Amino acid sequence: MNLKILFSFFVIALMSCKNQKNQTKEKQVEKLEVSIEKQQNNPVIRHIRTADPSAHIWEDGKVWMYTSQDMEDATFYDSMDGYHAFSSTDMVNWTDHGEVLHSKNIPWGAKGWMWAPTAIYKNNKYYLLYPHSVKGTKEDMRCGVAVSDEPEGPFKDIGWIEGVEGQWLDPCVFTNHDGKTYLYWGVKEPKMALLKDNLLELAETPRTIEYGAENFFEASYMHKYNGKYYYSYNAGLGGFYAMGDSPYGPFEYKGAINPKQRQDHHSIIEYKGQHYFFYHWQNWNGGSKFSRNTCIEYLYYNEDGTIQEIYATKEGVKKIK
What we know:
Layout: H1 3-38, E1 49-57, E2 63-70, E3 83-88, E4 95-101, E5 118-122, E6 125-133, E7 141-148, E8 156-166, E9 172-175, E10 181-185, E11 191-194, E12 207-208, E13 218-225, E14 228-234, E15 239-244, E16 252-258, E17 267-271, E18 274-281, E19 293-299
Antiparallel strand pairs: 1-2, 2-3, 3-4, 5-6, 6-7, 7-8, 9-10, 10-11, 11-12, 13-14, 14-15, 15-16, 17-18, 18-19
C-alpha cells in the first residue's frame, strides 16, 4: 500500500481516538457537575415554601419536622396557612405528610395567620402549640393547642393557653428530664412559664428571661446538652444564645450561633450521633422574607460546651446511609 495512504489512515485513526477521549472527558465533567449539583441539599423542601422548622425525634425513631407554610407571592405573613409534617430517616429525603392543621379548622381564629409552630409528645399524644390571630392582626395572637394520636396528624384544635397573648409569640415547648414542661415565647421581651400537664394552662405566673444581653427579638428556643440548658433566639440579625443550669436560667450570654442568617428561626436535634441545626432562608429560587425555605446544617459543640458558629450553605448535610 502507498505510504501516503497509510499515513492518512494513521492520522484519521489518531484524530478519531482523540475525539473519543475528548467526548469521554466531557461526559466525565458533565457527570461531575451533576454529582456536585446533587450535593446541594439545601433547601431540603422545594415543592412548597416552608419556614420555622420545629424538629423532633419521636418514638418511631424518625426525624419529624413541623413547619409553617409561606405562600409563593406573599407580601406579608398574614397569608401563612396550613402546617405541614415531614419525616425522614436519612436527613436528605423527606416525606411530606401534607397539611396537618389549617386555619379553617380553628373556630376561634382568623383566616391565615398560622405562624411558627412547636411540637411535643406528652400524655401518649402529639401536640402542636402555635401562634394564631383571633381577629387578623399581629397584636391579638393567641397560643393555640392542637392534638393528634399520630405524629403525621391530622391535629385537632382544643383551644388556647390563657395568659399567653400579644404579638407574634413564636412559642417553644421544652420537656425536662423530670417530665416538667415549659413554654417559652415573646417578641422583644422573652417570657417563659411552667405548663400544667394538660398543656392548656400555665402552672405559674410568667417570668421574663434573663439571658445576659438585650438583643432578643423573637423565636425563643430551648434545648439541653451535657446537663446544660441552651436558650437561643433570633436577634433580628441572626441567631444568638446563652447557657444556664436551669430551664429558668439565669443564662450566661455566649454570642452568635447563626450570625449571618437574618431571619433565623431554628430548632436543634441529635440524631444517630450527630447534631443538626434546622432553620429557614429566603435566598433560593426567587424567595423573599415572606417566601422562605427550610434548610439544615451540622451543629458542633466546643469542649467547654459553647457552640461553633453556623453559616448557611447550599451543600447542607449529607445523606445518612
